Amino acid sequence: MILSNRMITVIAMSALLSSCTSFPNSGPSYRSIDGSAAVKVSTEGRKVGIDYVLIDLEKSMLGYFETVNEASLKDGFGGGRGGPPSIPLGIGDTVEVSIFESQAGGLFIPSDAGSRAGNFVTLPAQTIDSAGNLSVPYAGRINAAGRPKEQVEREIEDLLANRAIEPQVIVSVTASKSSQVAVLGDVNSPQKVEITSGGERVLDVISTAGGISSPGVETYVTLQRKGRTATVSYEKLSNTPAENIYLAPGDTVFVDRERRTYLAFGASGQNGRFDFEESNLSLGEALAKAGGLLDSRADPAQVALYRSVDRKTLEKMGINTSQFAAASIPVIFRANLRDPSAFFATQKFAMQDKDILYVSNSDSVELIKVLDVANAVTSSASGMSSDAVATRDAVEELAN
Predict the structure, then answer these.
(1) CA–CA distance, 52 with 55 (Å, rounded to integer)
(2) Which residue blocks in 117-233 are alpha helix, DSSP H?
(3) Which distant-in-sequence residues (6+ apart) come within 8 Å of 24 by Cβ?
(4) pLDDT digits (tens, 9 = 90+) for 335-378
(5) What is the mean pLDDT of the chain?
(6) How does DSSP assign 156-186, residue by residue?
(7) Are the C-beta atoms of residues 173 and 93 closer than 8 Å to each other?
(8) CB 219 within 8 A of CB 245
(9) The pTM is what?
(10) Which of 82, 120, 124, 338 is 20 to 30 Å from 233 at the Cα level?
(11) 332: CB partners within 8 A, 6+ apart
């Protein structure tokens, strides 16, 4: 029986499919992985389940994304204006208490001491204990931690008023442990910096710690204070005086380098992860850095950028976000680069850290893929037909 070309094609395709397991492979096939699973949590027949917003890149929305939205120290803590915060006494501070009397013969200045400059006595230096107290003879234990030294001075004077002659008290801090700020992370000399009543700002303590050790454009400064945290980029901190706020005792300043990257997939010249390096990038620059669009594959009308966007930004744009529960909403921005003016828009659209670029294949490329598969199968079928004829002729020759 002579097989028709159509039948031979069907047989060839069946043979190819049935022999897939014998083809060279670097590991198990997806069918093996799927079939051998003891338990499957599959999305087959449904989408992944992440809802998103699709926004076409055009003039009216560029104003919301021309610059990168950044956090603020000023908004989180204030302190950029006005005077420095007061520095109270604290546990661990070492202080000296000097007591002055108006004349000799009082509690602290004996009558035989004569007249001497100031008529005062300075008590031995002492450390404010873990309960926050210091001791003064005849005044007892004085609670000092958390109080301005002027307030502590007045209390000691009041307690000594009936014993000393017109007492006047001065409390001097000789070593401060409670009014220190820790500066950590990517600085040249991490350390604790003592802040004074003159006031130290964020850049002051970073400078005292030797300055930053990483590129400014990739450096972020985080301020931690009493359980609250705020982060700002070093560039914004340096260029915006209002962000350079006063520090308070017990603050922690953490300087961290965050290498900014984005991913590129699909029909771009190169696929992979790309660094911003020491500059800010626009969408157009990011596409160029990834090798542009492949002429042989890309659909210029379907350039997509994936990003999570703050809900408030989308609401300002007039987008209904009621169906989204989270404060950060997944968004796909779509650029049509068949439109000549879209290239101007891509130069104004700012990239952000961890963005994802995806360039779709054109429909013609997908069609070519199908035709290539069909051609390969047809060629295999033709080869099998020729082999069948050759085998038949060989058998007939042997029979003769």
Answers:
(1) 10
(2) 149-160, 202-208
(3) none
(4) 999 999 999 999 999 999 899 999 998 887 666 666 666 666 55
(5) 82
(6) HHHHHTTTSSS-EEEEEEEE-STTEEEEEES
(7) yes
(8) no
(9) 0.60
(10) 82
(11) 52, 53, 54, 55, 304, 305, 306
